[in-house]
Request: fold
Amino acid sequence: MFETRVLTSLDDLPRASWDALFDGALEGFDYLRAVEGAGLEGFAWRYVLVQRGGRLVGAAPAFITDYRLETTFEGGGRKVAERIRRLAPGVMTPRLACLGSPCTETATLGFATDLLAADRLAVLKALICAFEQDASRAGCSLTGVKDADFAQIDLWSCAMARAGYSAVPGQAIADLSIDFTDLETYLARLSSGVRRDMRRKLRSRGKVRIELRADLGKDLPRAMALYYQTLARADAQLETLTPAFFKAVADRLPGRAAFALYYVEDDLLAFNLLLEDGEVLLDKFFCMEAERGRAHNLYFLSWFFNLEHCLARGLKRYQSGQANLGDKLRLGSRLTPAATYFKHRNGLLNGALRMLAPLVMGDPLEGLAA
Reply:
């Protein structure tokens, strides 16, 4: 019924063929091609295609990497993993094939718009089969899905359960509806304590110069230094971005990608990569010098600058990513959960991981009040 192919480059597929399945997604063909060409160390790229009668009806991006299992462990689980690594290092760094992308917000499936809902599960089953066969050829012992799109969660959960995968909480997504006409109306919706705190932080704006640019230009070396500083403060990160990534995003997404740069005097202290599509502003990466950036409240200044940008451009939703979820809740965001799935080729190890995962992998939403 279905034919499948697995590509190693999007150069082998017309842009229109891919984007037609994803309804103009912000992180579509051009963004994924920028990721592919950015030279991220340790990654190989895959694009799983499903055809019927020679016509493309389903697709998903994927990647292959050597994965340190403790990347997603927390607290005591990470300490246990480190002890196991000393005894059996190979067990703790399996070759991983994963649907999704290390650089996208979710793993989203693309389908032909006229594909019946009843056929989508069959397409996904064919896609998973092709993905697993390619993973086996590449020597991957672990397969998975990174942050399955919640809008497709029923489809994902059904297909992954049938294929023998286990589910754990993924990285939640924060977003805010732009259903207010100005910042004063927005501030009035916050609690009195948060409102006072934000007004105090906004006083820093007089000392900060903000530029919105299409690329980083001559500031790229300083921006990369800020990125590496931010990366060093992160609890865990799957990928390390490159200068080529930021250049490629700017080149491949003109009019859809922009950089907000935050200067104090002539010093660049933070930058923010933003993507937009006429409906949504997606905050991809905010990178900041910690001490001086916090002293000038740059994270919160960026929040309000982005809201102003949404209002000026008539955008309807501000999607602010997966970090600092507590602050985003205080600022009125809604959190949407995601699920991550995994399966080990070795039955014994798969059973052990299935039992251990709930104990050592934290839930990003735990302890957060809605």
The longest strand covers residues 55-66.
